[in-house]
Specification:
By secondary structure, this protein is an alpha+beta fold. 38% of the residues lie in helices and 24% in strands. This is Adenylate/guanylate cyclase domain-containing protein.
């Protein structure tokens, strides 16, 4: 296994899909599941050498930084493989905070999206059984260049056939490429 060294930190941002609706329809289930969710998220981030941001409460999501992109990707995989019912995580991993937020926001519950920059940094250092599926290219932010967009795949994860949550113009560009 080859380790790619990078001077940039990797960001992992996660949000829970449909949490507002779940808090309204299943408040007791959500309240009961929240301590396990927080403990699991805190454990996996620490286990992979990440640092949790204290700016965002760990109720509807969280942000963590990692010194190595491979650690952020590995943490994302473990989080997605771990049952966190009723929480369903949408995860983005990138080397900029803005781009990571964009990836997180277009992902579906149970899906991890990774930027091409991050994918290059983890080449040859993916967790066992993990692969990356190319989904196209898009801008991660107004000031950022086009970036390859990849999905973290693993036999234990769901397969996605739904289009990503993007404006139609961006989605059309990805489908054409």
């Amino acid at each position: 296994m080859t380790e790619q060294l990078s001077t940039e930190k990797a960001w992992l941002m996660a949000r829970t899909e449909g949490s507002a609706r779940l808090w309204q329809t299943q408040p007791a289930d959500m309240a009961a599941a929240l301590p396990y969710f927080r403990a699991t998220m805190t454990h996996f981030v620490a286990l992979h050498g990440g640092i949790l941001s204290t700016r965002q409460p760990a109720c509807d999501g969280f942000t963590a930084t990692f010194d190595r992109a491979a650690d952020a990707v590995s943490c994302a995989l473990y989080l997605q493989l771990t049952p966190l019912d009723p929480f369903d995580l949408c995860i983005g991993v990138h080397t900029s905070r803005t781009g990571t937020k964009r990836l997180r926001d277009i992902a579906h519950g149970g899906q991890t999206l990774i930027s091409g920059t991050t994918a290059s940094a983890v080449a040859g250092d993916l967790p066992a059984g993990a692969t990356l599926k190319y989904l196209g290219s898009q801008r991660m932010g107004d000031a950022e260049p086009q970036e390859r967009l990849l999905q973290l795949c693993h036999p234990g994860l769901r397969k996605y056939l739904q289009p990503l949550r993007m404006p139609n113009a961006v989605l059309a560009e990805i489908l054409v490429n």
